[in-house]
Amino acid sequence: MTGNREQLLALRQATVSFQGFVAVDRLDFSVAAGELRCLIGPNGAGKSTTLDLICGKSRITSGEIIFRGEPIHTYREFRMARTGIGRKFQVPSVFRELTVMENLEIGCSREPGVWHNLFRFSGGADTERLERLALLVGLQDELSTQAAHLSHGQTQWLEIALILAQDPALILMDEPTAGMTAHETNMTAELFNRLRGQHTLIVVEHDMGFVRDIAETISVMHQGRLLAQGTADEISEDPGVREAYLGSGGIGHA
Amino acid sequence: MDFVVSQILTGLSLSSILLLVALGLAIIYGVTGVINLAHGEFVMLGAYGAWLLQTQFGWNVLASLFVIFLAIALLGWLLEATVIRHLYDRPLDTILATWGLGVMIQQIVRLTAGGELRYVQMPPGLSGSVDILGATDSAYRLFVLGVALGLFALTWSIYRYTTFGLKLRAITQNRAIASSFGINSGQAYRATFAYGAGIAGLAGALISPLKSVSPEMGTTYVVDAFMVVVLGGVQSLMGTLASSAVLGEASGLLAYFSNDTIAKALVLVAIVIIIRFRPQGLFAPRVRA
Amino acid sequence: MSGKLTRQFLIYGAVCLCILLVPVVVDDAFLLNKYARYLVFGMLAIALSLSWGYAGILNLGQATTFGIGSYCMAMFLKLKTVPVHTGSEGLPDFMVWNNVTELPWIWVPFQSTTFSLLAGILLPALFAALLGWFIFGGRIAGVYAAIITLAVMVVANLIIIDQQSYTGGFNGITDLAEFSFLGIDFDAYSASTYYLVAASLTVTLFLALAVSRSKTGLILQAVRDQEERVRFFGYDVALYKTFVFALSAGIAGLAGMLYTIVMEFASPTFLGVPLSLSIVIWVAVGGRQSLIGAMLGAILVTGVQGALSESEAFLETWTLIMGGLFVLIVLLMPKGLAGAIEALVRRLPQAGNGRSARHTEPDHRPETHPNLGGTQ
């Protein structure tokens, strides 16, 4: 499936260890442009750490990370982000003291220079686009609300909107539906299906129903390595995956 | 030979004062994460306590130590209960608030005791000098060294062997988890703050016969104490001991080879460089959520 | 949104106009000199508000850059004096007393007016840029950054006192010529100097307002909120922080130059811990997240202090009161008077508003939220 599309991101023998504990172990992992990839696995499998490596929050101890042909693991975080990588964190992190609109303006980071932004004031050319984004995630009535006053679900949506404002080629989503109601989760699935194609997404998720709704290819991680990869049905048939999940009550509840 | 010994003894004396002054700061910082900028004022209050008890009641410094410890510990307890405890989630504001408290304490002393220098007599039994390997050293300085080591050993044992110490270590590791196991971190913090303040007061009283006593004296001590803590590493009492020894000897040598101003400047530059290049090694053990 | 902006501009403009009109009412030269001093402090407060209030960088050594600016001006004016105590031309008196025979190289460029005026702003800014890069490039933030700024200031102070033959040491640089520029003489005790300071303050205030309102200002606020998060949007956080640190230093440098003109000397106490603490207090009282609040806080506090300074004992008590007030404000009103007033204004019209009901419910959440940013 990934063979006929251009490869966007590749981790080659990526390894990271924290004081002797190997969280990601010689991981080979690649994603094609426009793909929506789900990354699942039991707790501690190294999923979030893998996302951390791709966005620069953690540094690989050995191996390499190639994005659009560039060895981005040598870059500092902000340079990695500028190559077109956006990250939604597991604990929603938005700027709580700023309003929703101000948050969105921060997200819109195509021109990240100090000097350039010194002469940019709110109400500029991006406003319309940002308002459309707010509409997309249902925050159109909250534009001047301080982010600290949003509900948990709304905060999740705001962070997703921030990533969309950033408009990166590759979007990393760490448990985007955590704390969302069933209805909100459905809306998120719908949104992700709409994003597929224009953006490349890697989604770490525990909610298997959600994963089945959105995934074309699922990658399963276990103990820092890639255990299996394939469609939802292939994965649930895989004996290795079944074994890894045995302790945690089967794939449906992972 | 006796020059070397006397130089080492000078350094040791400086080390013991550093240890006395830094111990309280290190405990408070290690357990609660608060950089107490009023720490120097606690030291200063201890010195004034010794002066007051001596001039008013004719008490010997040694006799007043326990009273001073209790008084300053009580003050620390009160300040924690009224001010500090509201600020644990706002580290920047704790340094501001403790700075403000320091200014207030200094000002109160200046208004009541006056701004002039005060002097405290050495305890009569310890005013002589002792011969060590051909060099002579003041008996009182040796006594201070002994007390400093004794206090350190006491503090270390409390931390290491008592239930209270175990609770402190648990809180330092993870405040939230410790609380969920029923450890009252609020109480532990208050006790720690009081103890640290008491030790600072004790340090001030012990130092008072060696230095002149003035409302501003705390400023130097807070810088020195902070330097010791930075160098020794947070949450490591042994580190505090080691860095007091190293710094005491080093500043003894530095003062011998250059002037005081430059020595002071160099110490500060060292602080800056350590904070900048070893923040993870010296500060990162802060795992509190 | 734009209505709020217009209101802000109106308030800022009105305050500046009041300040500029003071000499119309007051013609006592001594009072004007005193007021000009307060305005300089107001400018310092604006500088700290930019770095602390907007970017979360608590600069405990703001007086360092203030001092550099004031020494630049003092060196310039010193070289303009007719040397009284010396035979060798153009050599400041204290150098002669210290047996310096030739003008030191650091002093030479200060013979030029253009250089001196630029240096008073650019040297502090450059100094802060280097220091900022050193601190923020190493990801040092919060308390540790604050301690570094404090330590660096004390070092600078010690060096100035130690290098007596180049800096005048403990006594500073005194006996200065009168500042004159573009044909205007700025006698310290005159309306012209007051206007110079008031106009500089106005320009600074609006410049700072523009920066705070720009997207760069917004990004700085985001950095204050969650530094780590900003990085993952592709912003070079260290560069942003260094920028605002240097800008704040430039403003402090300008304030320092004006202070030398107003006070007619420069002294190592200008780079002192007490002054730095005072700046922090003014800004905390006025409101660190409001430029005008911080500025008025400085003018208010120093004004009251000046009124009380007639009696020495009272001044001591005043310091005590200020310390207590400061602790209370840190404890109870982290956003200072401006924050309190803003909250009051916001509450009034919202009483009958339908939105307020929805807002009350999530209001419980904010304060107890664990800080994800780590060391802020």
Task: Provide a descriptive summary of the structure in words.
Chain A: Keywords: ATP-binding, Nucleotide-binding, Transport. Chain A: It comes from Gellertiella hungarica. Chain A: One of its GO terms (molecular function) is ATP hydrolysis activity. Chain A: It holds the Pfam family ABC_tran. Chain A: Residues 9-248 form the ABC transporter domain. The complex is a heterotrimer of chains A (254), B (289) and C (376). Chain A is of the alpha/beta class and 254 residues long. Chain A folds into 2 domains: 1-84 and 168-254, 3-Layer(aba) Sandwich (Rossmann fold); 93-167, no CATH class. Helix content of chain A is 34%, strand content 25%. Chain A has helices at 47-55, 77-82, 100-107, 114-118, 127-136, 152-166, 182-195, 208-214, 232-237, 239-245; strands at 7-18, 21-32, 36-40, 62-67, 70-71, 85-88, 170-174, 200-204, 217-222, 225-230. In chain A, helix 3 crosses helix 5, helix 3 (100-107) runs parallel beside helix 6 and helix 5 crosses helix 6. Chain B has 289 residues and is mainly alpha-helical. Chain B has a two-stranded antiparallel sheet. The radius of gyration of chain B is 19 Å and the shape is globular. Residues 280-289 of chain B have low confidence and may be disordered. By secondary structure, chain C is mainly alpha-helical. Chain C has a domain at 29-273. Chain C has helices at 2-25, 29-54, 62-80, 93-97, 113-136, 142-162, 164-167, 191-213, 215-231, 237-263, 273-286, 291-308, 312-332, 336-350, 355-360; strands at 179-181, 184-186. In chain C, helix 1 (2-25) runs antiparallel to helix 8. The longest helix of chain C is centred in the middle third of the chain and has 27 residues, at 237-263. Chain C starts with a helix and ends in a 16-residue tail after the last helix. Chains in contact: A-C, B-C. At the B-C interface, helix 4, helix 9 and helix 11 of B face helix 6, helix 11 and helix 13 of C.
